[in-house]
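dude i think i finally got it to work??
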Amino acid sequence: MNQLRALSPALVLTAVTAVGLEASGQAPAAPDPVYVDVFAADGTGRPVPALRPDDVEVLQDGAAVPVVACVASGASRRGKASEVSRLRQLQVVVFVDDATTPAQRAAALAGADAALRELLARPGSRVLVASGGAGAAIRQRLTTDPAQISRALAALERGAGGDGQRSTARAGAEAEGLPALVESLRALPGRTAVVVVTGSLAALSGKPDPGGQPALLRTAAEAADAAGVALYAIATDGAPGVAAARVTPQASGGPVPLADPGDALAAVVRDLDAAWAVGFLPSSRGDGARHRLDVRAKREGITLRAGSVFADVPDDERMAARTAAALLLGFEDNPLGIQLTLASDQKPKDGMQVTSVLVTIPLANLSFEPKTVSHDSDLTLWLAARDGEGPVVRAPKVRFPVSVPNDRVLTALTQTASYEFKVPLKAGPCTFAVTVRDEIGRQSSTTIATTAPAADAATGEMQ
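look at this
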């Protein structure tokens, strides 16, 4: 993953036209639950159609914590401030092993177009295509466009993935790429999954562990478990033998042969679609530590599988990481409707330029708290930037209070407020990501802008 260096841009409030609101009093917000993906099955292995908080027990470091919600894949948004529908957003990374041959890739991805179109039909779902050798090269950033995904996969099927050979040295180098890509997904809202396409589960490493998992997948599975990312492998040892398996650090189970080679990715999509988001209130609050997690069924006749680790990342750190990941993955999620306007100094010195990043916020989309003489909103902003394929740089977070006099409330709905970052970077095309969090409405937005069109959608690369 790219190294992050600190950046201290000048911060200038360009407009505090404090307006736009939902003028309703709000009590102090209750703690937000943490959600974990839980796969529930009955005695025959079929997905459970109904799951309630009373059916589930969650233990953090061996002690039970309150379970407050079970959200199904078909859940929809309930009101503007609700995050329920965003819990069901699904970001899927299709990672093609460079060592596979064109024939192996074609067999494993035979039904990819139909499966991914079905996935992308779900609101908020996105797909990213990457390939792995000595690192993880992003071939198509997160998108909702099936045509872009089809083109990226077709290019990999034709042989863009690699030379079909593998050495011990390359396998060791690649181990730094896939786990890093998995880790970058941690900060994204909603649900995330990585599907590894390989010629053989055993081909990823010369010596599988006693549980049958190759070393690379085991390392990636450990990173995925801690990050709350579902990890799958689709493998072919020669047509028509295609297998799909969910990979866990415990190496439980194993690859399940599928009768139809083209059904592998569709089977993964069905598995993801059957998952429940189970919300619990952790006993820790942003301590930055990893905690042991045990999800158990309290209802007879069902079995549950879920991650075994919960990383309690502080909110501020999570938002900063989300902003940086947006640059690398092409992630945008903008319910607050923020806009970025860029203007660069046209006379850079010593190969540098200063870019003004103006963040405009429609305040009609924010929540305000009534005070004695005003209605107040409280915003926090994060910025990350990248020049070309250089390292990601991050600015310190900014607190942005907005206050509307009570006598202006009725005229405030069409106004906006703006904040300006001054960012020095190397001269040339630069990309910026900004996250804004409404601390009262407890909603966040992330969006991206670039000073010049990207030369190629397939140029992003994880270092």
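The longest helix spans residues 146-160.
im so relieved honestly
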